[in-house]
Automatic annotation (TrEMBL):
It holds the Pfam family Phage_int_SAM_3. GO terms for molecular function: DNA binding. SUPFAM superfamilies: DNA breaking-rejoining enzymes. Keywords: DNA integration, DNA recombination, DNA-binding. GO terms for biological process: DNA integration; DNA recombination. The keyword Oxidoreductase does not apply. Residues 234-432 form the Tyr recombinase domain. This is Site-specific recombinase XerD. Gene3D superfamilies: 1.10.150.130, Intergrase catalytic core (1.10.443.10).
Amino acid sequence: MSGRTSAQRGLRGTVYRRGAKWAFMIELAPDPLTGKRRQRAKSGFESEGEAWEALAEANGELRTNTFVASSTRTVAEFFEEWLVNAAMTLKPTSLANYTAFTRAYVVPVIGSRRLQSVEPATLTAFYQHLLTSGRRKRDTDSEMYALWSRSPEDARMGAAEIARRTGVSYSAASNAVRRYRNGKVPLPVDPGLSARTVTSIHVMLRRAFADAVELRYLSTNPATRVRPPRIDRRGHVTWTPQELGRFLAAARSDRFSALWVLLATTGMRRSEAVGAVRSAFDPVAGTLTVVSTRVVVSGRARRSDGKSRRSRRLLGLDPTTVQVLREHLAEQDRERAAFGASYHDEDLMFCWPDGRPLHPGAVSVRFQRIVREAGVPRIRLHDVRHTYATMALRAGVNPKIVSTRLGHATVAFTLDTYTADIPELDQAAAVTISNLFLPPQEPRPTTMFTDPLTEQPPS
């Protein structure tokens, strides 16, 4: 073309011949960090007209603020940058999980790809790979069992040697040997990841790629057009009220008996109970405010401000729980006085005699020991929370109240989570609704059949 048309004169950028092909170039705003000049160029067009059309499209993207400069940035490079920036907004547990996902799964599989080459089909194939063969964690249980089972029966390998050879802790090896002696053989480990783990990775990718769109690294978020694998929701394992009572009876002599009562009567999370502070407890009003938590990040316990905004909440306590907490704190005051200046005062409601904080993992281990002593079905500590929720809903407590006390984001989440565990609620609802308009059922009279010839009841 000898000159620009009127439409072309309104475009930002230039079109020029590059060898046998055509190209365009646009001058972009300077780099916000360095102030250096930035350009966007693209070549390989067969004709000058095609180059002008591409330039017009790029101008449209600039006007709508959707323009993305071409980049060779890889997925691995982006996630290295993203994790640093995300650390400013993510909670420590989420950051630790996302860092582990990135290093174990994202970078080894798709890290070398150009970020801008990631398509929905890329992620679909990635998820399928994770589901079928993505597991990277060692199956240490099978390794330990192989060492133990291959040793002579009259001289089985001990926990210390198993721990040394496999690199696990002595505690883990000791528990494993106890299981093997009781006939519990480890089951084969699926080479793929669970659907729940892959879904968690999908959630991370969707968030990361959304940030990439905001940074103009990507024009669209490929994760929003991919469906994560379906999670088969199983019913929660819970105790009956009688089993919970047996557990609490067995826990009366435990140092943290008040902790077990608090978990049972409020449904608090482990992190919330372990992180509970004395200053948030009002024995007169009978309330406890959840203001902080104690979570495990990379094996170490640390204080956090809760799982979500809804996690911070005021919990009403029953008189028995209030009295149990009063007695527990009175004993704690005596311990503080005995330790004097060497007492580690962090205002914690539950701690060791010298005030040092509890490790959440140690609380779970202690819980399982009392479960064995009580002779009740084995459940996880978190299942006490599920037990509380199902008992409350069965007792007819308003779902909104149950949801608020549990610190859930919505009532819908509470009902979706627990309704399947309580099928009798559905049956009760059917009866209640039908009674509004259907007459009560009366017993039907028994029909007496007669002989068709004699019209008499059959003999």
